[in-house]
Amino acid sequence: MESPRVRFLLRMPMPHHLTHSLGRKIFRFLLTIQGLGAFALISVAIALTKFRKSRHVIWPLITHEISRAGLKLLPMFLFLAAALGLVIIGQAVSWLTRVGAINFLGTIMVLVVVRELGPLLAAFLVLARVGTANVVELGTARAMGEVEALEALGIDPVHYLVMPRLLGMALGVFALTVYLILGSLVSGYLWAFLQDVPLRPSDYFRQLANALNWLDFALLGLKTLCFGFVIALVTCYHGLAQPLRLEEVSYATVRAVAQSVITCVLLDALFILIYLAT
Question: Is the pTM for the entire model greater than 0.90?
Answer without folding.
Answer: no
